[in-house]
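=== Structural record ===
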Amino acid sequence: MAKVGIVMGSDSDMPVMAKAADMLEKFGIEYEMTIISAHREPEVFFEYAKTAEEKGFKVIIAGAGMAAHLPGMCAAIFPMPVIGIPMHTASLGGQDSLYSIVQMPSGIPVATVAINGGANAGILAAKILAVSDPELLAKVKDYARELKEQVQKKDAKLQEKGYKEYSK
């Protein structure tokens, strides 16, 4: 049973949303990914959001650009955490998406990651689920340790070669 729903308003969002899916796969978390336009097919959207809990979703990751209603509407209907991913847009560079998602009215929170922050959305979903899953928490801790080791290796290389050789 999928624990995370990944929903996007357009297939143009797929490269960013795929990064969220990749992180969920890294942590062994099942997910279901779908494309639904809240504006062009509202009945389909409402059915998705209303049945998400029944499907076993514990978190929804919703990506949207421009007016970016999808994450907020999910949060208005789905009783558990929603993570919004604002998409980069040609007209305003994603600021329109960011503001639309982050400025939710009181009582309807949406956790919001950076513009095009698909990977962080997947990691945040894993951390939310890890609150009640010790095995997943161990994987999240292992991932954090991997990140730390990557930085330490880069610093060791810098210290060994100096910045002029390092940047070549």
